[in-house]
């Protein structure tokens, strides 16, 4: 079972998005290791040096010059210097920069230097020349925010890379999507819509190969139809002569022999007709049809004893090929009647998709044979034999009609027993 997204566009976009995030994460780690961390360390060291130098200069100045120096520090460097150390609450060192500054101060002064917080400032007690100089500085000095930087790089970088990647992927994937949609609509018709041979070289090669293949398939199907039409004409002519000969036989010929010949001729004519329908398929034009009365009429026309059940939306109108759907139901009901040993039951579940069930109570079809029964002339030994009649093309014709008109057919078990052939008309 396939897991994850199946669309080429989604898969490729997901891989590129993951790659963009990985690139952004690598950039963040590298930036922090080689830029942010060294700059933060240098900034802490410079600030520690400024604090020590300020305290040292203050001590060396004469007392009358110290107030002017304190004013100069406040105006030029936003430093508040006081020789009267106060009792202040210890600062929160969860900020990495403050922890780094405390470490560098302690290294320069060769003693532990605590940091405090008060008056919207961070304070450091700097011992110098017998004084304990208390220096306050703005907390804005420590606004180094590697987390925010990382988020900005991650989000902006990933968005840019993802946007550019998505544009490139769409340019690559959209032609493939268009090609896939066109391939799904190809049913072997001669007048198919060719893929445009444009875009990247690989897409041009793919489109050209498909168009050539489609023309060859259409020509092959046309030749097959022409061949079988000729065979049908050649076979039906002697059949007509044989019927005429039977009509001209004298009355002395035993009537049972004549009837036996007539049945054989009818079986041959039916086989020729089924072979023609299988070869020709149908390209019937779809029209709007109110499904409930149409399907009820079709079912009861095919078999008066067949039961019909409609579930779901009433007065539902869908655009379908009525002749093709009639032929599908005719073959399925006839098959169920012949091999299901019961009166078939047709149930329609009408919703977004219209699901038609043709149910019988026969022995069922083994799961291993449910694909094979749609092959021409395939017979199940337990449920089909030469004595049951039929051309062996009924289900093959049904499948071809469903493929031509975009319907889906499947075989499943009925409850409590039997076979449930499901035809789905997509909404």
What does this 3D model show about the protein?
The protein is of the alpha+beta class. The protein has three domains: 140 residues, Sensor histidine kinase RisS, periplasmic domain (Beta-Lactamase, 2-Layer Sandwich); 78 residues, Signal transduction histidine kinase, dimerisation/phosphotransfer (DHp) domain (Helix Hairpins, Orthogonal Bundle), CATH 1.10.287; 139 residues, Histidine kinase-like ATPase, C-terminal domain (Heat Shock Protein 90). The chain is 55% helix and 15% strand. It is built from nine helices and eleven strands. A five-stranded mixed beta sheet has the order 6-8-9-11-10, covered by helices on one side. Strand 3 and strand 4 form a beta hairpin. Helix 1 runs parallel beside helix 3. The longest helix is centred in the first third of the chain and has 53 residues.
Write the layout of secondary structure elements.
Blueprint: H1 8-60, H2 66-77, E1 79-82, H3 96-109, E2 115-118, E3 121-128, E4 131-137, H4 146-185, H5 201-247, H6 255-280, E5 287-290, H7 291-302, E6 307-312, E7 317-320, H8 322-339, E8 345-350, E9 354-360, H9 394-405, E10 408-413, E11 419-425
Parallel strand pairs: 6-8
Antiparallel strand pairs: 1-4, 2-3, 3-4, 5-7, 8-9, 9-11, 10-11
Helix pairs in contact: 1-3, 1-4, 5-6, 7-8, 8-9
């Amino acid at each position: 079972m396939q897991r994850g997204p199946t669309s080429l566009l989604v898969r490729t976009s997901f891989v590129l998005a993951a790659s963009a995030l990985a690139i952004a994460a690598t950039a963040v780690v590298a930036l922090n290791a080689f830029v942010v961390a060294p700059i933060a360390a240098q900034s802490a060291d410079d600030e520690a040096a400024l604090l020590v130098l300020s305290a040292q200069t203050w001590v060396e100045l004469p007392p009358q010059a110290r107030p002017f120096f304190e004013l100069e520090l406040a105006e030029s460097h936003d430093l508040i210097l006081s020789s009267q150390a106060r009792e202040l609450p210890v600062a929160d060192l969860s900020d990495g920069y403050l922890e780094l500054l405390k470490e560098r101060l302690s290294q320069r002064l060769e003693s532990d230097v605590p940091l405090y917080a008060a008056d919207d400032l961070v304070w450091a007690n700097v011992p110098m020349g017998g004084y304990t100089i208390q220096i306050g500085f703005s907390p804005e000095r420590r606004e180094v925010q590697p987390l925010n930087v990382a988020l900005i790089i991650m989000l902006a970088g990933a968005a840019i890379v993802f946007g550019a990647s998505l544009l490139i992927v769409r340019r690559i994937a959209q032609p493939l999507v268009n090609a896939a949609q066109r391939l799904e609509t190809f049913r072997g018709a001669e007048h198919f819509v060719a893929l445009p041979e444009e875009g990247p070289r690989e897409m041009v090669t793919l489109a050209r190969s498909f168009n050539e293949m489609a023309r060859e398939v259409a020509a092959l199907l046309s030749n097959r139809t022409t061949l079988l039409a000729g065979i049908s004409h050649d076979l039906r002519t002697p059949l007509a002569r044989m019927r005429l000969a039977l009509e001209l036989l004298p009355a002395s010929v035993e009537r049972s022999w004549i009837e036996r010949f007539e049945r054989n001729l009818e079986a041959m004519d039916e086989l020729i007709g089924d072979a023609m329908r299988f070869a020709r398929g149908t390209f019937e034009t779809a029209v709007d049809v109110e499904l409930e009365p149409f399907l009820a009429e079709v079912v009861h026309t095919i078999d008066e004893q067949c039961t019909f059940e409609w579930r779901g939306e009433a007065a539902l109108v869908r655009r379908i090929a009525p002749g093709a759907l009639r032929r599908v139901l005719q073959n399925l009901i006839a098959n169920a009647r012949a091999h299901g040993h019961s009166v078939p039951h047709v149930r329609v579940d009408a919703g977004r998709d219209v699901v038609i069930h043709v149910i019988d109570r026969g022995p069922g079809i083994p799961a291993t044979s449910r694909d094979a029964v749609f092959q021409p002339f395939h017979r199940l030994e337990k449920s089909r034999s030469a004595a049951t009649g039929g051309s062996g093309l009924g289900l093959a014709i049904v499948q071809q009609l469903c493929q031509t008109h975009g319907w889906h057919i499947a075989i499943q078990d009925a409850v409590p027993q039997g076979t449930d052939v499901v035809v789905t008309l997509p909404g």
